[in-house]
Structure prediction request, 213 residues.
Amino acid sequence: MRRIVIIFTLLMTLSLNSFCQVSVVVKAGVNLSSYSGLNSNEKNLQEYKTGYIFSAGIEIPLVAGLYVEPALSLVKKGTQLFGKADRANISMEVNPTYIEVPIMMGYRFPILESVSLTLYTGPYFSYGFGGSWKYKSTNGSHNADAFGNTLDIEKNEAFTKKRWDYGVGVGAGIEVDDFLFQTTYALGLAQVRTGAYGILKNRGLAFSVGYRF
Prediction:
């Protein structure tokens, strides 16, 4: 019985110690997004779409150097196509907006007294709730909601009806005191659209600046 009490006390002490060291982390940056899985005709016309990313999360220390960071993010994704396809000049911009929950596991390597290198990876889960889809060609133009709203006609004209997305993120960063400078690559695993353009999955490269409180 004494051993059980001692083990329980040690676990509670470690848990309380970790809880006391929890930090709040806020970030903001630029997200360069595109789609994988485009058909060859459209793939050659694709360019990275510049969006944004805002994030707030908590950093929970586990053991020396190792931490987990769940967060809540607002991310603008999508792509843009410019050029000639099927004998027509086209211009298309897809700008979906997602609420995202990344759960990153990271490790911090001290370099100097107040400078550290961080490496991290983990899954993310997101839900698309808005954005736009704009298409222009020599044959006409089209503007619609990226996901469609409650109107049936707009649902039919939406770029995709698949709002849920998930994938894996991996990144690296430099920390100077409590300032964070990070680069993160997100690889989508969910098929967000299938059809004439191909089997599309989100991907993106984000550059962000943050602060840890």
